Each structure stands twice: as structure tokens, then as C-alpha cells.
Structure prediction request, 680 residues.
Amino acid sequence: MKKAALGVALTVTALVTSACGQGILGGDSKKDKGPILLGMDIPLSGSSADIGPYMKNGGQLAIDELNAKGGVLGRKLQLRAEDDACDPKTAVAAANKLVAAGITVSVGGYCSGATLPTLPVFDRAKIPMVIPAANSTELVAQKLKHVFLVNGTGDQQAAAAIAWLTKSGAKKVAVLDDNTSYSKDIAVRTGAALDKPGAPDKTSLDAVTPGESDYSATVTNVLKGKPDFVYWTGYYQEGGLILRQLRQAGYTGKFMVGDGSVDTKLVKIAGDKAAEGTYATMTQTPDTIQGAQGWIANYKQKFGAEPGPYSTQAYDAVRVAAEAIKNADSTDGDKIVTALEGINGFPLFSGPLKFTPQHTLTSGGFVILVVKNGKFTLQDALK
Amino acid sequence: MTQLIWNGLFVGSFYALVALGYSMVYGIIKLLNFAHGDLYMLGAFSGFAMLGAMGGLVKSSSLVALLVVLVLTMLATGLSGIVIERVAYRPLRGAPRLSLLITAVGASFALEYGTRIVAGPNPKVYPVRLNGTSLNVLGARVTLQQLALMALSVVLMVALNLLITRTREGRAMRAIALDPRAALLMGIDVDKVIARTFFIGSALAGAAGVMAGGYYGKIDFLMGFIIGLKAFTAAVIGGIGNIPGTMLGGLVLGLLESFGTHWVGGQWRDVFAFGFLILFLAVRPTGLLGERVTERV
Prediction:
């Protein structure tokens, strides 16, 4: 069944990107009057379904602001979101839908594992991608011309983790991941950094299979090395279970999670008592950024709710895309890529933007959060 | 070491409870009921819904509330089992084995995505959580709630074994397992007995679902898939169709996973478990306690 679905997806891709795609993708003059479409592949269902709406709202906020100022190239912008369910197969289908809809730039991507297979889809259609949230180093490892990350990479997240481990005086650290692209990336890099002289000791580098309930065997394995700090780099579903099972097994040391686990569901699954004091390496969220109050007020007024994780990154991704279209003075993919590479000092929430030759941020902008009274709050800006 | 054994036995008792339903259904009508793991999921969700409906009552006496919900859930999943048998399996009973296998897969998807439509795709967190103090038993850390859950599964398994070996109902089941046509000729209402078998197996899976919900806390609509496969593995290791063998198979599988994780790491746990399944199928296809049945022509 999987193969059949893949086959259909590939056929659609082939059709869209070859002959049949010409009418949609070629810069035919009829479309130059209509709105410029920006596409967003985000999880609206599945394990990370909570995140999608935050990103959609963040992107919409930027689009409304730009449209109020007259849009880009005299045309309005329009956001089109598709559900990737944090699942590779669904993501490819969603990406094909966006390509068929004729988007100019893709501003989506949350789960790295689901975003990876969509890269060739967009790249072949010559659609630039400004990826707001997904941050596995594998995304840029393929060196695709159209791929840009406006979030720190796994490398930068691992560096932030090491910085905090050293700063908080950890001695023996266990690293645990869930075998997905994003998670493994951070875990392996953190593990490698721990092996260097001067860093805290690494007691174990282990992985679990996601989707199960009982991780007691892994927990026993992790505790064998008597760590005083455990770093979990996967998502909150398993993270909550592992944290709870660690505490039940008598672990009293510190626990830290990667940005994929920053969600209040983590606290719910683990239980308030077990989760209190959990650290997290996280890209900046609106409530941890100084001077973002005005932005938060706008967001609340528009959507009637607090902005969540990655709404700022999605907001930034849309603005970066619009800026590049404006600078390129065209909706042609290759020209936009050149414009993106030329951006220098464009203000983002995480600081002025200038892409590295690998199309990643020059600085990661990771901060450390801590769970206080059941909520993630800022602990250290690592500045 | 004792911790590893304890972990294995605890997980194994869950596997065994789910595997029993698999094994019973296979034993009686030679059907691999792939929807069985999803009845476990259905149990977890119906328990969640009942606890939600009970609201404020729950907090005061959580263990009692869980027990009440457990019984009600067993009824609910048991009835669902009967419905599935009636709708998906009975009309195909005379059909080739392969058609039955396919409807079982279909029933599994129908349950999974039906639950997804009703309850939504996001994981849910149980309102009642079992929080127990822990004891030190021979160097292993054992919590009271683990003991309670394990005792409960042992009680359920013993009750089932008594039912099968000591009652008329059980004798009828065994008779059908041996030869359905002869059983019919002896005046046994075959359809009714098969329906009851589904009821019992599904109720046990539902019980395991509620127990898992209360213990681990997180449930989602795909949670039945992996445990369904594990239960199948447990049944094959122990001897599918053989009740004591299945219980043993569950415990053996739990121990295998526990030690496998210890020796080769967590990411290899499933490779280890399913690798063993292949080994067993190759070396001893009838399982630990299964007997080679001579086919009469």
C-alpha cells in the first residue's frame, strides 16, 4: 500500500514538473495580476498537530501586514496551507498539491523527517523554500539550491545544549533520541561534543522506537550509567512518557528536551510533579523575546489566542520570502534564490538575517527554557 | 538484573493479556484477528471517555473509579468484538482463509480511523493516573501500582483458564476448536460459542487498554498497531491456540525485549523481538507449548 501511494505521488510529481506543469509554472502573463501564492506544509493533524495552527497564524499575520502596505510587486500575497501530518508520505502529497496550486515560495516545514522528502519536489519545480521550523542538518546536507533555513540547525541546537550542560555543572550526561532525522541529528552531534576533552562525560547515547508506551527497558539502560543529566532530543509524546518513567524508576537528576518537545502536552503526559524543572533547548518564542509585546498584542487581537511555538518563525519566513520577491522584482524561482542569498541584515526575531553559504542562519538563536508551574519559561538566553 | 527481569515480566503481562484474545480466536476458528490490537486501543479510548463523563467523581477515589471503568470497558469492547465478528467475519466463514485475513485488516483500519474521526488525531492524556510508592524487591524497583496491575492481569488470566478447562462453555469451545462440524452435530450452537469467544477475547484486550491508559497516561488512535503485532508474536512464541502457552509467550517476549534492550540498545528492541519471531517460526513453528496437530483427512 505504501508503495502504491508513493507511486501515485511520484507520478503526480512527474506530471506536474514535466509537460503538464508548464502551464501552471511557466510565468504566463495572465497570472501576473492575481495574488502571489505562498505555500505552507505544516502538521494540522497527527502527532504534532498542535503546532500547525500557530505557524499558519504567524504566517497569516505577516501576510496581512504586507498586504495592508500594498503587497509585493503591486500584487497581494496569499497563504495556502496544506496538512503534512508530520508524515513523509502525506508531506510529499501535500507538497505536490502546493506545486500544482502554483505557489511562488514555500514557507512551511515543521517535522524534519516529513520535510526532507518534500525538498526534491519543490526543488525540481524551481520553487524556493524558506523553512521556518524544521532544522535537521540533513535538510541542507543535500546542498539543494532552493532550500533555506530560518531556524537554527541541529548543529547549533547541540551547541546550545552543550553550553547549558557546562554552565549548569552537569557531570555525567545521557543522550536519548527517537531515531527520527531531526532527533538523531541533535543527539549525535551532542554526543560527539560530549566526547571532547573538557566537556561533561557521556554515559550513554541511546535511541527508542517512537509509538510505544513502555520505555522502562531503555530507562533502566540509561540509569545504568548513573547520569545526573538526561537530554532527550525527540518529540513530546515519547518525551513525556520517558520523563515519567525515569522519575518512577527513581531518577532525581536533571532532564532536558529538544525544541520538538516544547509543548505543554509534555507536562501533561509526564505529570506536573515529574515535569517541574525540566529544561529545554528552544529557538526563541514570542513570549521569551524582549520587545515582542506589540507583536503579541497584534496576534492576540487577530486570532483571539496566545501565539505558540514557531509562530514567530513562520511570520519571519513569510517576511523573508516577500522581501526576496521584492528584491528579485520577479516571481521567478531562480531570481528569488539569488535575492535570498543577497539578503543582508534583514531584521528577524532571532536577529539580523544573513544566510551562510549553506543557506542556514549565521547565528542559531537558541535559548534555554525551564518548566515552571507547568509552563515553559525563559531560563537563560545564552548570550 | 532483577530490575530487567521485573521490567520484562511487567510488560510481558500486558502482552499476554492482549495475546490471549488473539490465541483464543485463532484456536477456535483459525483466524488471525488483526483487529485485535485495535480493540485494545478502543478499550483505552472508551475508558478515557467514561472517566471524562464521570468528571469530578473520579479524583476522590481514583483506583475504585478505574476498576469500575475497567469493568464497563470490558463490556463495551466485548460487545464491539461481537459486532466485528458478526459483520466482518461470520459472513465469510466458509470463504478461503485469505479473504478472512483481508477483512481482518479492513476491520483494523476501520477501527483506527473511525476512532480518529470521533476522538481526533491528537494523543489524549488520561485524567486518572496511578501514582504509587515504590518498594525495593531484591534490588529491583517495584511500584505498588505495577503490582496491582499485574495481580489484576493474573486474576483475569486464571479466570479465563478456569472458564476454558472447567465449564460447559469452555468444553464447547474446545470441541469447536477440534472439529466444528462434529460439534454442531452434537448439538452445540457453534455461532453462539464463537461470538462468546470474541466477547471474552475482546474484553480482555479492552481491560489491557484501560490498564495501559491509567498506567502510562498517553493514548492515541494508532496505539493498537504495535501491541497487536507484539501480541501476535507472543502468541506464536508460546504456541498459538494454546492458552497457557500464550501467557508464557507474553512473559517470554517481555523478558526478551527487556534483555535485548539491555544488551544491544533501545533502537534494536523491536528488531530483537521480531527477529525472535522469525527464529521461532523457523525452528519451532508450533511455539513453546504448542503441539503438532495431525490433520485428519
